[in-house]
Structures are given as structure tokens and as C-alpha cells.
Amino acid sequence: MLTDAQEIGRSLEVFLTAMVGLPRADAEKQHTFMEPGRTVGAYLPGERLVGTASSFTSWMVVPGGRKVPQAAVTDVGVLPTHTRRGLASALVRNQLEQCLARGEILASLRASEATIYERWGFGIASAVAAVEITVPQAQFRAGVPKGGDVRLIDLRERADQDLLARIYTGANWAGAIDRSSYWWRAKAHMRHLSQEHFYAVVHGIPGHEDGFAIYKPEDTTAWFRSKDRSIVVGDFVANTSRAHFGLIRYLLSIDLLQRVVLDPMPVDHSLEKLLTDERAVNTHAVRDETWLRLVDVQAALRARTYRAPGEAVLEVRDELLRENTGRYLISAQGVARTDRRPDITLDVSQLACAYLGGTRFWQLAQAGRIAVHDDGGLTRADHLFGLRRAPFSGTMF
User: Fold this and answer.
1) Which of 1, 96, 212, 337 sits at 20 to 30 Å (Cα–Cα) from 258?
2) Residue 300, SS3?
């Protein structure tokens, strides 16, 4: 465990060197963006720090609405001179063992590579998309609610930064995660270092705000005479449907614009249904978002709700955290260990894919990634884990 501020700052340098092309923060401030007591490092005898992994104390909203404790894993990296030696595996194992000790039943991350984290029990639990709206075509259908008041705020002001953080605490959709003070501080710092200008609006009357959007202009080199002026909305948070309508109406009402790009957005956003011409909306660039790890399988399964009726028995295998290996009887009434014959056998990484409802068990079966012992049990499992909406986080870290 790294505790010294300089040592933690060096760990971020190791991560950035491993990643090659990410922007760098001010060296003197790097450690202030890391939560104390949550960074681990790998040293080789007689050498400097060569590998690191960190995390933040966090929660995740799981199906049913509970906010359960999780570790937001970040900054996993090994110097390119020391890869292929098992250092990353040792660091991640150490992290997961610490999660168990802290009572964090989940861990999640954003993956720079799509082929390495499954070996440690992580699976893709949610996806995001980019949504492009052609503004001149975007006319609202009659009857679409107006939403409420929207006002601009100043992202350079600490009070307005704190307002956004307060609004976000109301995030209530499956897959949403906590944004720690360290996350907000790092985002504000990176905006400060950027040459781009960011704008922010909040929805709702003062004291009762329930949503916000942060956006920036795209390609400003020829903005004055451009015929393709666009903004990119990089952070869109609506805790109520009223906020959703109000913020979308505002974004599409900004003068001069030809395009509004919202990225990231849920894959099942349905923005086109608001408009008379659905072709004004183009959804593209669908990609993985949440890589999830069930650290304590039984506690994680018990934390979420399931649709009635029916029950299914899942046999879970976990080579890294072997206490998770076993059979689980799942129904709307609860979750329990069992000796019954399993309907499905699967690795913990595949269970992570289905846990939030973003992937169906039949999809995993069709891909040969799980073993199905009973087709009826497969159908019941899909029903139990099903959600009305696709999971979505919307937070990059």
C-alpha cells in the first residue's frame, strides 16, 4: 500500500507512462486526485516503482435501486519495460482482497484494453453510445412535455461545482456509480488545463435542481463561418423525466448549431421518439462501458431484486476468489446457496455480464460462454434478471 504523497504521485506517473497518450495533470497536484489508502504498487528488488493500481470508495446502483458498496478501480498500469511478468495480476488480486476486507461487494472499471480483465473475473455489464441530433430537423412532437427552468452556471466557481455534485447524488438508474470528491476535483483540474471552453446548465429552480448538462463546442477553428457548428455534451444527468425533457429542449434550442452530440448516452435512450422526424437522430459508436466484478457473489446477488415468478440455480466458478465458487438458488424471494442441480454453469466474469441486466443469458449461451443444463432454467434466469431499461453509468474514471 502506498501512503506517501510523493509515492502516490509517482504511481500516477507510472500509470500515465504505461498508457502512453493520456493527458497529464500538474505534477505537484497529482496526489490530490487520489484517495489515500487505496493505491497499491509493485516494486522489484533494487528498482523503482514499476506497477500500480488504485481505486476510489464508491457505490453502484443495482437493479431494484439499492446503492451497494463498490470499488471504482482505476490507474492500473505496469511500465512497458516490466510487462508480462504477472505484476498486473498480483496488483489486481491484492485490490480484490482489499475490497473483501472493506466489505465492497462489487468492483468496476473502464478498460483501455478489451482482452485482459476477464481473466480476473470482470465482465462487460453495460454499454454506451454516441447520439447525434441534426438540429434543423429536430422538431418536437406535439405533447412532448416542456420540462422546467434551465440556467447557465460557471464551472470555474467552486459553489457551482458543488451544486453539480449535489445534483448527482440523486442518480438513481441501474449502473450509476458514486462520483467522489476526488473525481470532481480531477475533472475541474483537467478542464482548467484544457484549451477548450466548457459550458454547463442545470435544470430546476434554485434549491431543487434535478439535472445538468456539460457541453463544449467542437472544432472551433472556423466557427464564425462554419456551416457545421456542433456541440458535444459529455455529461448529461437527469434524475427526473422533467429534467430530461427540459435539458434536451434547451440543447436543441441553442442558436447557430447544426448538430448536438450526446456522448455517452444509454444504448436505449429513445431520443428519436421525441421528434416528428426520427431520422434527425443517429445513434452510433456503441461501445463497452462498465467492466464489473462480483467480489462477494452471494452478497452481490442478494443486493439486487429479481422479477417474479420462477427460480433458477446458477453454478458459479471463480478461480481467483474461490470462496465465491458454488451453486446459488435465485428467485424473487431471495438468494441462497444450494446443492440442487444447476440450470446454468458459468464463470464469475460471465455472471458479471448479466448481473445488471445488460446482457441476457441466452446471448452468453449462444456464444458458448456458459453451459446450459436446462433450457427452461435458461429462460427463467433471463426473466429473473431482466430489466425495463438497459444499465448505464455515464461516469468515466
Assistant:
1) 212
2) helix
